[in-house]
Amino acid sequence: MIHTDKIASANEAAEAALRADYDALGVQLDRRGVDIEGVKEKVAAYGIAVPSWGVGTGGTRFARFPGEGEPTSVFEKLDDCGVIHRLTGATPRVSLHIPWDDADPADLIAKAEETGLGFDAMNSNTFQDHAGDPHSYEYGSLSHTKAPVRRQAVEHNLRCIEIGSKIGSKALTIWVGDGSNFPGQSHFTRQFERYLDSARAIYAGLPEDWRLFTEHKVFEPAFYSTVVQDWGTNYLIATELGERAQCLVDLGHHAPNVNIEMIVARLIQFGKLGGFHFNDSKYGDDDLDTAAIDPYRLFLVFNELVDAAGTPDFDPAHMLDQSHNVTDPIESLMNSAMEVQRAYAQALIVERAALEEYQEENDPMMASETLKRAFRTDVTPILQMARLEKGCAIDPLSVYRASGYRARIAETRPKSAGGGGGIV
Ligand code: LRH
Ligand code: MN
Ligand code: MN
């Protein structure tokens, strides 16, 4: 994998400069009444799950250009995820997708132990057909007009729970592509009623200590209407199902210009924020690297999360969900995990008492400036120090590039074929 002495020698070369930067930032933050050590401890304790499907090269429906050394099994995916965590110390868990990652749970546990990882939420997949299944999802899954198709989709979800229970997962995320492409194709109300009935059957099979996350998305693959199209429908699902059903917010799944941080605040207020799929987008569900387009929006989401910290039972799951078309997926995922940490650290240094005062006194300029001041602060030394103290890399990208990991695995993993039909 990555040799510990490679990390140590790279860190040694960078440590003195880091300490100087960290001390200077500490003095600056101290003037604002912010304790840098407290921020660093929270950042160090923070972890985000990596999507197993993210370590393979993605693509679009036009083409996929596979990279060198693509993982060919869930076990090789876990190897790559292990590298990401070894270097960043920020990604202790992996979120699996079934049937893409179907394997004997005992083997999954063994590999997770070997790579120093655990498992996060399970993801079911009823947006494509599974080899050997009698029914097709072409016209929907949980909301399909035909009961046998719905039953097959429910059973698949129950199987995801069963696998997850054996590997230490505590949540199931359901995203369905169900919808319609033509006005009149589907009866909105009856279709949603069927979805709810199926979702209730899954919820009934949820272990006591599990949560069910439903994920909304405005369009795609359905291009006229989508059954779980926005947070309003998602909230209805979560309230219909029960206390352990919550909404998952994928940052790329909203109409353009939607105020996502406000949706986050609303869901928190009513105990229904289950978790996130972090990524970034310019136009739609672009699945670009987190913070590649709009880091301020990511910061504003984290501002809501930090503001709500301490709310009883507030424990959203944090996962990345991206598609890497033109970069090495390991590099993208490391970078994205660190961008999420950055947004978290920036939100932690917001001067909240001052912000509240400006809000009370209706001073929009100073309220906005208070947020901007935190956002403009370069918190990189905090992130780097947290990594150094964990024995991870001060600069994960350069250590990864110098390690030759990609070239090494490319020797043993067969080159995969390109083509169309990337993961959305
Ligand atoms: C749907 C989605 C959902 C899927 C993943 C592959 O667009 O965001 O989370 O499980 O992509
Ligand atoms: Mn998603
Ligand atoms: Mn998506």
Automatic annotation (TrEMBL):
Signal peptide start-end: none
Record-level Gene Ontology MF annotations: isomerase activity; metal ion binding
Domain of life: Bacteria
Keywords assigned by UniProt, alphabetized: Isomerase, Manganese, Metal-binding
InterPro entries tied to this protein: L-rhamnose_isomerase, L_rhamnose_iso, Xyl_isomerase-like_sf
SUPFAM superfamilies in the record: Xylose isomerase-like (SSF51658)
Listed name of the protein: L-rhamnose isomerase/sugar isomerase
Organism: Palleronia aestuarii
Upper taxonomic lineage: Bacteria, Pseudomonadati, Pseudomonadota, Alphaproteobacteria, Rhodobacterales
